[in-house]
Amino acid sequence: MKIISDTNASPTQQLHSAITGFFITQIIGTVARLGIADLLAGGARDSDSLAAELGVHPGALFRLMRGGVTAGILEAVSERTYCLTPMGEGLRSNVPGSLREVAILLTDKSHWLPWGLLSEAVRTGRSPVQAALGSDIWGHFARNPEEGEHFAQAMGNVSGLVASELTHHIDFAPFARVADIGGSHGELLAQVLRAHPSCRGILFDLPQVAEGAKTVLESRGLASRVDVVAGSFFDPGIPSAEAYLLKHILHDWDDEASTTLLRQLHASAPSGARLFVLELVIPDNRNPDSSHLIDLNMLVLADGRERTEDEFRALLSATSWKVERIIPTRSGASIIEAVKA
Ligand SMILES: C[S@@+](CC[C@H](N)C(=O)[O-])C[C@H]1O[C@@H](n2cnc3c(N)ncnc32)[C@H](O)[C@@H]1O
């Protein structure tokens, strides 16, 4: 098998590589999950000593690491001895730009099982998540807190760059209260508050997630500046704030649910409140784009969707939010700034 980056590969070989892409996903997920990248942080190790430390099967670990070379995350420095490649470094925990939790999340049942039913999603136009997990994804996380924790941490992994772009483009100083709606464990809010010491924060999420946020915000020394509020954004009672953050929320929901959410937010917002929606915006052309893949992820997991600029404008204006500007950022996500009309 040739890997897909081999430009000399024939179309059949490229297709074969693409078809077996899930092998690579699982190899990377397993190296992340077992903590192998962290154990290689100090340099190359032989697979037998790693197997003894991890308590796993030595022969199978050797085969995994050999596969990790083909996946591009490991390099063989001698017989059965491996180190991380620059790409593999990103599987370490707590390094800038780490994607460790993302690799684990995407190979958790929450993602792996519904993706196995993609053809069902295409047949019906609905997420197969009930058939795959027995409930919606949020119920699955509530029943499987370890996976819920992976999800919250993976969201934190990808929040870093978005947060620095957000604080670069938007001055939050004029807002007394900034509320992150569906803010998970508060990584984004923490960065906004750090950049703007005069603001207070409100973190709003489902009860089981809000609990986890308290711990994270305490460890960041921000507990006294943030009110953590548990609830559902489909119900009345979203806290009042001068500025709202809605990052990677609307893409989880279809237009009907998004409309309910935006109306509830509108009802809770004081006059002149600003809404900052952070989402991928599907480009207005027919070129290949990663947003098309994330869009399928949303269909599979949650009946959600990625949207074009026109679709965001339509959704927001229908719920009385007036879009003032859309700022593309280097993170891939755009900042859609709207004001309560
Ligand atoms: C895709 S995550 C985005 C998290 C965070 N905004 C970020 O970008 O890192 C969606 C979030 O919405 C929360 N959520 C789902 N349903 C909710 C509801 N009905 N009310 C409030 N939060 C909800 C989830 O717990 C999760 O934290």
UniProtKB/TrEMBL annotation:
Q: Which organism is it from?
A: Corallococcus llansteffanensis
Q: What is this protein called?
A: SAM-dependent methyltransferase
Domain O-methyltransferase C-terminal: from-to ranges: 115-319
The answer to keyword Methyltransferase applying to this record is yes
**Any one GO molecular-function label of the UniProt entry:** protein dimerization activity
- Active-site residues from the entry: H251
Name the keywords, alphabetized. Answer: Methyltransferase, S-adenosyl-L-methionine, Transferase
What taxonomic ancestry is recorded? Answer: Bacteria, Pseudomonadati, Myxococcota, Myxococcia, Myxococcales
Superkingdom per UniProt: Bacteria
Q: Which InterPro entries match?
A: COMT-like (IPR016461), COMT_C (IPR001077), COMT_dimerisation (IPR012967), SAM-dependent_MTases_sf (IPR029063), WH-like_DNA-bd_sf (IPR036388), WH_DNA-bd_sf (IPR036390)
Q: Name one GO biological process term.
A: methylation
Is NADP one of the keywords UniProt gives this record? Answer: no
Cite the O-methyltransferase dimerisation domain residue spans from the record.
19-89
